[in-house]
Task: structure prediction
Amino acid sequence: MDNKLSKEELMEMINSLDPKIKKSLKNTHYQDRKDLEQEIKLKIIESYEKIASIEAPNFEEFLTEFLINQKR
Result:
C-alpha cells in the first residue's frame, strides 16, 4: 500500500507551511531569508521522503512478530 503524497500534494503541504516559515525567517538577516527559506523547504521534502520510505508492519504482522518474540 503506497500512501506517499503526489508532488502536487507535497507542494500544497509546503505552501500551507509558508506563513510559519516566513514568520520564523523574520528572526534572520534580510539578505539571508530567501536562501534559508529554500533550505527549510528542501529539508522538509527530504524529511518527508525519508519518513515515507519507512516500511512499518501492519497490526497483524506486528502482533505475529511480538508473539514469536514472547515465546523466546
